[in-house]
Amino acid sequence: MLMASGYPEDNFMTVNIRMFLDEITETAEIAIDLKPNGALIPLNSIKGAVQKGQVQLGEVRLGVHANEEPMLDLAGVPFVAPDYPTVWLLKDMQKDYVSDWFDSQGLVLLYQAPWPGAGFYTKGPMDSLEAIQGKRLRIPNTPIQSMGNLMGYNAVLLPFAEVPQAFSTGLIDAMFTSPQTGIDIQAWDHTDHFTYVGASLATNAVFMNRRAFDALTPDQQTTVRTAAARAELRGWEMSAAATEAQIVTLREQGMTIGTLPEDIAAKLDEIAPQLVQDWLKIASPEAAEVYQRYQALR
Q1: Mind telling me which Pfam families this protein's record contains (predicted)?
Q2: Which of 41, 162, 177, 287 counts the most CB atoms within 10 A of its CB?
C-alpha cells in the first residue's frame, strides 16, 4: 500500500505517522510505503488521490476541504478552540459528523491530530495595530483570512509549499501560522519576529480508501483502528510538547519572540464573535447544533 502526506520527514505529524504505520506493519503484516512532503502527491490533491485509489492512505489538514464541508474548519476558526483541552473536546463532539462526511466520500477517518497554536511572523516587532495596516499577511484558511482583514492586514490565502517564494517575491510581508510550519519553511530567512497568539489549533486527519479498508481482514481492521487510536492520543501529546521546544528553536535561529500588544489583543477579542457568526452562516443546521453542544460543555 501507499500513503501520501504533505509535510517534511522531521515534522512531528510525519513522525507520528511513521510510528502509526510501523505498528500496523509489526502487528498486522501490512506494508505501507509513506511518501511525505508532497513527494508523490501535492497536499491539496491527497484526498482526491485516496478517493481514486491512486494511494490507499492520506493525510490532510481538514480545513483544506472546508469549501466542501464547513465543519472541517471549525477548529480553525480563531478562538473557538484555542488550547488543547478545548480542541480535544471539539474533536470528540465533531467525531460522528466528520466520520460520516468521510464515509460519504468513500473514505475511512482513522485519526486526527492538532497543530500547535499559531502566531505572527513579521519583519520587525508587532508594536501596534496601526503598524500592521495594509501589510500583506499569509494565512492558512478562510476564517483566519477574515481575522487578518478585520485587523487591517491584506490577508492572502496561500498553500504551505508556496510561502517561501511568496516572501522572496514580495507577495507577502508576514504570516500567521504555527511554530512547526515556521521551522519547516525556515521562517528566519524571511522574518525576524514571532509573536505567539494561540487562537486556533487546526487539525490534520489521517484516512484510508474505503475499498482498501474493507479488503482487510477483520483482525487487520481492528489492528488499524487500535493503532489509529494510539496515534491520535500520541499526536495530541506530541503537538503539545512541540510548541515550547519549537519556540526555543525559533529563538535559537535568531528570531525575537514578542508579546502581543494590548491594542492588537483587544482587537482580536472584539472580532472573535464575528468570526464564529461568519462560520455559522455557512454551516449546516446539524453542524451548528454540534457547535452549540460543544459551547455548552466548554
Answers
A1: DctP (PF03480)
A2: 177
